[in-house]
Specification:
Largest sheet: 10 strands, mixed
Number of helices: 13
Distance between the termini: 5 Å
Helix content: 25-40%
Shape: globular
């Protein structure tokens, strides 16, 4: 294998009471996906699943089929988004809990803590500012008792033979390292608990944009900064100084700024906040992803992201940019570029995160659809084997 590809996996495709209350009975991401409409001539919407259909992740047969497709494409394992809001509160935990308890599918996995608020804008872009009525679940960090409770919940997963490791340590990624002011203490405590429970440690990975418009001050507060499109060293060093072992950067903002012009892209995003009804910005996939990887993505403990396609219009309408010409052929070139970035790393560290396996509401998936069939999976298989 030319790389260890770990695919982010969204466990949202089953009804839960919290979504039923806000969106109506039976809501899953499929509702938004099926209702999507083209925003311009030639825009591929709605995106309709092929082999797996509009699946329900409560079915073990579906989870087995997904694992088989991933295995055949050369994907090492799934990185399940994990929702822990504090005080023991979880959402969307059922699919992973069943995978863990049943032992099936016998396919590697790890966890990424999606430590962000759930609001009515999470699955669909709403209007107006956030207030108490827009929150579905608020992310909280109650302190050590909850951190220990959280660790004890994931400990059986860490001990499972399927759990993905780097340097012999179970991988645990954190989606938002910036706004978790207590993150360094959290990491230190979990490392201590890991050793007390016979683990070698935990391999903590910070998830973040390689080119960022925010920076964390020493006191944990956040400041706005002008992004640096030439180097990501400051961003990555900032994560590592917090106690993280590695970084999983997302190069999408970098690519968009380089292809559009930094100032123009920042102005586009600001204008859309004020005038969301403006037509969607289009990015040529093949040209934009050429600029996804920063020079520092070659660092030994930096694990870049590959992205097959992007179209959040089912969730966000015109608000977010739409990637056009996101074809399996262009994805294959993107994979080749990524493999070149990680070429000289140790085999254990030749990790690429795939974003994503099944984010259908973001138009960000490799599962078969009606237009391209197995095209994106075939691109992976052709380049990885």
């Amino acid at each position: 294998m030319n790389a260890r590809v770990i695919a982010y996996y969204l466990p949202q495709f089953h009804p839960i009471p919290e979504n039923d209350k806000v969106w109506g009975p039976g809501f899953t991401e499929w509702v938004s996906v099926a209702k999507a409409k083209p925003l311009f001539r030639g825009h591929y919407q709605p995106k309709i699943p092929a082999d797996l259909g509009f699946y329900d992740l409560r079915l073990p047969e579906t989870r087995e089929q997904q694992a088989q497709l991933a295995r055949e494409a050369g994907v090492e394992g799934f990185c399940y988004w994990h929702y822990w809001f504090g005080n023991g509160r979880q959402l969307l935990e059922r699919p992973f809990n069943e995978v863990l308890s049943s032992g099936k599918p016998d396919f590697p996995f790890c966890l990424a803590w999606a430590n962000h608020d759930w609001t009515t804008k999470t699955w669909q872009r709403g209007k107006g500012k956030l207030n108490s009525s827009t929150y579905i679940a608020k992310q909280e960090y109650p302190g050590d008792d909850d951190y220990r409770r959280h660790f004890n919940y994931v400990l059986p997963a860490f001990r499972d033979h399927r759990y993905i490791t780097i340097d012999g340590k179970p991988v645990f990624s954190i989606f938002d390292p910036y706004h978790f002011t207590d993150v360094s203490h959290f990491i230190e405590l979990w490392q201590q608990l890991a050793h007390e429970n016979g683990l070698k440690g935990i391999y903590f990975i910070a998830i973040g944009n390689s080119t960022s418009t925010i920076r964390r001050r020493p006191d944990g507060s956040i400041e706005k900064v002008m992004p640096n499109i030439k180097s990501s060293a400051e961003v990555y060093d900032g994560f590592l100084k917090l106690g993280f072992d590695g970084v999983n950067p997302f190069g999408k903002p970098r690519g968009e700024m380089i292809i559009t012009g930094k100032n123009r892209r920042l102005m586009q995003k600001l204008t859309r906040k004020l005038l969301p009804q403006l037509p969607a910005v289009r990015f040529d996939y093949g040209k934009t992803v050429k600029h996804f990887f920063a020079p520092e993505d070659r660092w030994e403990n930096v694990f870049p992201t590959i992205m097959p396609q992007w179209d959040r219009s089912p969730r966000a309408g015109n608000y977010d940019g739409v990637y056009v010409n996101a074809t399996p052929e262009n994805f294959r070139e993107h994979i080749k570029d990524a493999l070149e970035v990680i070429r000289d790393k140790q085999p254990e560290h030749k990790v690429l995160f795939l974003r994503s396996w099944n984010e259908w509401g973001e138009g960000n998936y490799v599962e078969p659809d009606e237009k391209y069939g197995h095209g994106f999976l075939d691109a992976l298989r052709q380049e990885l084997y």
